[in-house]
Amino acid sequence: QVQLVESGGGLVQAGGSLRLSCAASGRTFSNYAMGWFRQAPGKEREFVATINWLGDYTTYAGSVKGRFTISRDNAKNAVYLQMNSLKPEDTAVYFCAAGDRPTVLRVRYDYWGQGTQVTVSS
Length: 122
Hints:
- The protein has 122 residues and is mainly beta.
- The protein has no helices and eleven strands.
- Strands 2, 4, 5, 6, 9, 10 and 11 form a seven-stranded mixed beta sheet that branches.
- It starts with a strand and ends with a strand.
């Protein structure tokens, strides 16, 4: 089992920045690829970014590419999502997830956090 806890969400104005963190405990964190997903009210949970176990491979959704950066620190059992140039359409609950490979597919992730709310005002 892997337990995941997100933090760092909040209210920010459009154009601002936030850094989300996800702390992991349980099984060896470095064995897992990590992903960030988000879910806006009334919408499906969607892929945002993913990173492999070593941290040298990342993939982003087109809507966030160039604005968001995913990173990890295996020594701290943590993954991060730096979000810059935020837009109102980025408003959602953001979830981190752990899986066996870096993929955009939600179903391939085995462990999920409870989420952290990000609200971007216009």
